[in-house]
Protein backbone atom coordinates (compact mmCIF):
# COMPACT_ATOMS: atom_id res chain seq x y z
CA UNK A 1 0.00 0.00 0.00
CA UNK A 2 2.80 2.46 0.81
CA UNK A 3 4.23 1.99 -2.67
CA UNK A 4 0.87 2.78 -4.23
CA UNK A 5 0.86 6.27 -2.72
CA UNK A 6 4.39 6.89 -3.88
CA UNK A 7 3.50 5.78 -7.42
CA UNK A 8 0.47 8.07 -7.56
CA UNK A 9 2.44 11.09 -6.39
CA UNK A 10 5.24 10.33 -8.84
CA UNK A 11 2.70 10.29 -11.69
CA UNK A 12 1.48 13.78 -10.72
CA UNK A 13 4.88 15.42 -11.25
CA UNK A 14 4.62 17.65 -8.16
CA UNK A 15 6.42 20.99 -8.57
CA UNK A 16 6.69 23.09 -5.41
CA UNK A 17 5.53 25.52 -4.24
CA UNK A 18 2.17 23.73 -4.18
CA UNK A 19 -0.58 23.25 -1.61
CA UNK A 20 -2.18 19.81 -1.73
CA UNK A 21 -5.18 18.20 -0.03
CA UNK A 22 -5.44 14.46 0.47
CA UNK A 23 -9.11 13.73 1.21
CA UNK A 24 -9.85 10.43 2.92
CA UNK A 25 -6.15 10.25 3.64
CA UNK A 26 -5.98 7.39 6.13
CA UNK A 27 -2.65 7.56 7.95
CA UNK A 28 -0.91 9.24 5.04
CA UNK A 29 -0.30 6.66 2.33
CA UNK A 30 -0.51 9.43 -0.26
CA UNK A 31 -0.15 12.52 1.95
CA UNK A 32 3.32 11.50 3.12
CA UNK A 33 4.82 11.19 -0.39
CA UNK A 34 3.09 14.46 -1.34
CA UNK A 35 4.96 16.18 1.48
CA UNK A 36 8.18 14.36 0.63
CA UNK A 37 7.84 15.69 -2.92
CA UNK A 38 7.82 19.21 -1.51
CA UNK A 39 4.11 20.01 -1.36
CA UNK A 40 2.54 21.73 1.62
CA UNK A 41 0.11 18.91 2.33
CA UNK A 42 -3.01 18.51 4.44
CA UNK A 43 -4.63 15.13 5.03
CA UNK A 44 -8.27 14.99 6.09
CA UNK A 45 -10.05 11.83 7.22
CA UNK A 46 -13.26 11.04 9.07
CA UNK A 47 -11.51 8.38 11.20
CA UNK A 48 -9.88 10.08 14.17
CA UNK A 49 -7.59 7.14 14.88
CA UNK A 50 -6.14 7.37 11.38
CA UNK A 51 -5.69 11.13 11.71
CA UNK A 52 -3.75 10.55 14.92
CA UNK A 53 -1.67 7.84 13.26
CA UNK A 54 -0.90 10.23 10.39
CA UNK A 55 0.16 12.95 12.80
CA UNK A 56 2.55 10.51 14.48
CA UNK A 57 4.01 9.48 11.12
CA UNK A 58 4.56 13.09 10.08
CA UNK A 59 6.27 13.88 13.39
CA UNK A 60 8.47 10.79 13.28
CA UNK A 61 9.51 11.57 9.69
CA UNK A 62 10.17 15.23 10.44
CA UNK A 63 7.68 16.44 7.83
CA UNK A 64 6.85 19.94 9.04
CA UNK A 65 5.00 20.60 5.76
CA UNK A 66 2.43 17.85 6.45
CA UNK A 67 -0.59 18.19 8.73
CA UNK A 68 -3.61 16.01 9.41
CA UNK A 69 -7.07 16.92 10.64
CA UNK A 70 -10.41 15.26 11.26
CA UNK A 71 -13.15 16.08 8.76
CA UNK A 72 -16.09 14.93 6.64
CA UNK A 73 -15.43 14.71 2.90
CA UNK A 74 -18.92 16.02 2.20
CA UNK A 75 -18.58 19.05 4.47
CA UNK A 76 -15.05 20.40 4.87
CA UNK A 77 -15.64 22.69 7.81
CA UNK A 78 -12.87 25.17 8.44
CA UNK A 79 -11.32 24.70 5.00
CA UNK A 80 -11.41 27.97 3.06
CA UNK A 81 -12.38 28.36 -0.58
CA UNK A 82 -9.55 28.24 -3.13
CA UNK A 83 -7.11 26.77 -0.58
CA UNK A 84 -5.31 24.17 -2.71
CA UNK A 85 -3.55 23.80 -6.03
CA UNK A 86 -4.28 20.05 -5.95
CA UNK A 87 -6.99 17.99 -4.27
CA UNK A 88 -6.43 14.25 -4.28
CA UNK A 89 -8.50 11.33 -3.04
CA UNK A 90 -7.31 7.79 -3.54
CA UNK A 91 -10.03 5.30 -2.54
CA UNK A 92 -11.09 7.61 0.28
CA UNK A 93 -13.82 10.15 -0.48
CA UNK A 94 -15.57 7.54 -2.62
CA UNK A 95 -16.92 6.02 0.62
CA UNK A 96 -18.87 9.12 1.60
CA UNK A 97 -22.65 8.60 1.42
CA UNK A 98 -22.95 12.12 -0.08
CA UNK A 99 -21.17 11.94 -3.47
CA UNK A 100 -22.58 15.20 -4.85
CA UNK A 101 -21.46 17.02 -1.72
CA UNK A 102 -17.99 15.49 -2.05
CA UNK A 103 -17.66 16.75 -5.63
CA UNK A 104 -18.89 20.20 -4.62
CA UNK A 105 -16.46 20.45 -1.71
CA UNK A 106 -13.52 19.32 -3.85
CA UNK A 107 -14.36 22.00 -6.39
CA UNK A 108 -14.85 24.64 -3.71
CA UNK A 109 -11.48 24.22 -2.01
CA UNK A 110 -9.37 24.04 -5.18
CA UNK A 111 -7.96 27.22 -6.69
CA UNK A 112 -9.13 28.32 -10.15
CA UNK A 113 -7.11 26.31 -12.63
CA UNK A 114 -6.15 23.72 -10.01
CA UNK A 115 -6.45 19.94 -10.25
CA UNK A 116 -8.73 17.35 -8.68
CA UNK A 117 -7.50 13.77 -8.92
CA UNK A 118 -9.42 10.72 -7.70
CA UNK A 119 -8.62 7.03 -7.72
CA UNK A 120 -11.79 4.93 -7.53
CA UNK A 121 -12.93 1.36 -7.86
CA UNK A 122 -14.39 0.33 -11.21
CA UNK A 123 -17.57 -1.76 -10.88
CA UNK A 124 -17.95 -5.04 -12.78
CA UNK A 125 -14.47 -4.82 -14.24
CA UNK A 126 -13.11 -8.31 -14.98
CA UNK A 127 -9.52 -7.04 -14.57
CA UNK A 128 -10.21 -5.58 -11.13
CA UNK A 129 -9.41 -7.65 -8.05
CA UNK A 130 -11.66 -5.48 -5.85
CA UNK A 131 -14.51 -5.56 -8.36
CA UNK A 132 -14.45 -9.32 -8.55
CA UNK A 133 -14.20 -9.63 -4.77
CA UNK A 134 -17.26 -7.40 -4.32
CA UNK A 135 -19.17 -9.32 -6.97
CA UNK A 136 -18.47 -12.61 -5.22
CA UNK A 137 -19.30 -11.32 -1.75
CA UNK A 138 -22.55 -9.72 -2.98
CA UNK A 139 -23.90 -13.16 -3.80
CA UNK A 140 -23.76 -14.06 -0.10
CA UNK A 141 -24.78 -10.71 1.43
CA UNK A 142 -28.25 -9.31 2.12
CA UNK A 143 -29.51 -6.48 -0.12
CA UNK A 144 -28.10 -3.04 0.78
CA UNK A 145 -30.36 -0.66 2.71
CA UNK A 146 -32.70 1.63 0.82
CA UNK A 147 -30.92 4.71 -0.47
CA UNK A 148 -27.46 3.12 -0.34
CA UNK A 149 -25.06 4.53 -2.94
CA UNK A 150 -22.25 2.16 -3.79
CA UNK A 151 -18.73 3.61 -3.59
CA UNK A 152 -18.06 1.84 -6.88
CA UNK A 153 -20.35 4.29 -8.72
CA UNK A 154 -17.39 6.67 -8.57
CA UNK A 155 -15.85 4.35 -11.16
CA UNK A 156 -18.58 5.09 -13.71
CA UNK A 157 -17.91 7.90 -16.16
CA UNK A 158 -21.54 9.03 -16.27
CA UNK A 159 -21.66 9.43 -12.48
CA UNK A 160 -18.37 11.33 -12.36
CA UNK A 161 -19.51 13.75 -15.06
CA UNK A 162 -22.87 14.26 -13.37
CA UNK A 163 -21.40 14.87 -9.92
CA UNK A 164 -18.73 17.30 -10.99
CA UNK A 165 -21.13 18.82 -13.51
CA UNK A 166 -23.49 19.78 -10.71
CA UNK A 167 -20.49 21.32 -8.95
CA UNK A 168 -19.89 23.54 -11.97
CA UNK A 169 -17.22 21.61 -13.88
CA UNK A 170 -18.06 21.21 -17.59
CA UNK A 171 -17.68 17.73 -19.06
CA UNK A 172 -14.88 18.82 -21.38
CA UNK A 173 -12.78 19.71 -18.32
CA UNK A 174 -12.98 16.16 -16.94
CA UNK A 175 -10.72 13.35 -18.09
CA UNK A 176 -10.84 9.72 -17.03
CA UNK A 177 -8.44 6.84 -17.50
CA UNK A 178 -8.27 3.25 -16.39
CA UNK A 179 -5.00 2.72 -14.64
CA UNK A 180 -3.19 0.38 -12.32
CA UNK A 181 -1.85 1.90 -9.14
CA UNK A 182 1.00 1.00 -6.86
CA UNK A 183 4.15 -1.02 -7.23
CA UNK A 184 4.90 -3.40 -10.07
CA UNK A 185 3.63 -6.24 -7.89
CA UNK A 186 0.37 -4.33 -7.29
CA UNK A 187 0.01 -3.66 -10.98
CA UNK A 188 0.34 -7.32 -11.87
CA UNK A 189 -2.07 -8.50 -9.19
CA UNK A 190 -4.61 -5.69 -8.71
CA UNK A 191 -5.31 -3.59 -11.82
CA UNK A 192 -8.30 -1.77 -10.36
CA UNK A 193 -8.04 2.00 -10.47
CA UNK A 194 -9.88 4.71 -12.35
CA UNK A 195 -8.59 8.23 -12.06
CA UNK A 196 -10.87 11.19 -12.65
CA UNK A 197 -9.01 14.42 -13.20
CA UNK A 198 -11.14 17.53 -13.07
CA UNK A 199 -9.29 20.83 -13.50
CA UNK A 200 -11.83 23.43 -12.52
CA UNK A 201 -12.57 27.12 -12.54
CA UNK A 202 -16.22 27.15 -11.47
CA UNK A 203 -17.21 27.09 -7.81
CA UNK A 204 -20.64 26.37 -6.33
CA UNK A 205 -21.24 26.95 -2.63
CA UNK A 206 -24.82 25.86 -1.86
CA UNK A 207 -25.18 22.63 0.09
CA UNK A 208 -28.62 21.07 0.56
CA UNK A 209 -28.23 17.37 1.25
CA UNK A 210 -31.97 16.82 1.24
CA UNK A 211 -31.98 17.55 -2.49
CA UNK A 212 -28.87 15.57 -3.40
CA UNK A 213 -30.20 12.01 -3.59
CA UNK A 214 -28.94 9.59 -6.18
CA UNK A 215 -29.89 6.09 -7.20
CA UNK A 216 -27.45 3.39 -6.06
Pick out its properties.
216 residues; disordered C terminus; seven-stranded mixed beta sheet; alpha/beta; single chain; Rossmann fold; globular; 7 strands
How are the SSEs placed, and which strands pair?
Layout: H1 2-12, E1 19-23, H2 31-36, E2 40-45, H3 48-61, E3 66-70, E4 84-90, H4 99-109, E5 110-121, H5 129-138, H6 157-166, E6 175-179, H7 184-189, E7 193-197
Parallel strand pairs: 1-2, 1-4, 2-3, 4-5
Antiparallel strand pairs: 5-7, 6-7
The total beta strand count reads 7
How many distinct domains? 1
DSSP strand content: 15-25%
CATH superfamily: Vaccinia Virus protein VP39
pLDDT averaged over residues = 84
The end-to-end span amounts to 28 Å
Can you give a write-up of this model?
The chain is built from 7 helices and 7 strands, in the order αβαβαββαβααβαβ. The protein is α/β, with parallel strands linked by helices and 216 residues long. It has one domain: Rossmann fold, CATH 3.40.50.150. The chain has a 7-stranded mixed beta sheet with strand order 3-2-1-4-5-7-6. α2 (31-36) links the parallel β1 and β2 (40-45). The longest helix has 14 residues, at 48-61.
What is the compact description of this entry?
With 216 residues, the chain is of the alpha/beta class.
Amino acid sequence: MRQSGEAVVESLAIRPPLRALDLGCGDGTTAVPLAQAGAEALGIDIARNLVEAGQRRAAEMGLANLNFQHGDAGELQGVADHSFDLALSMFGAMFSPWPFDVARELVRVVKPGGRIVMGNWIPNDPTSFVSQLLKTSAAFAPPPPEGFISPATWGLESHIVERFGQAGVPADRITMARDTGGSEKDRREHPVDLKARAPTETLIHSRDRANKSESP
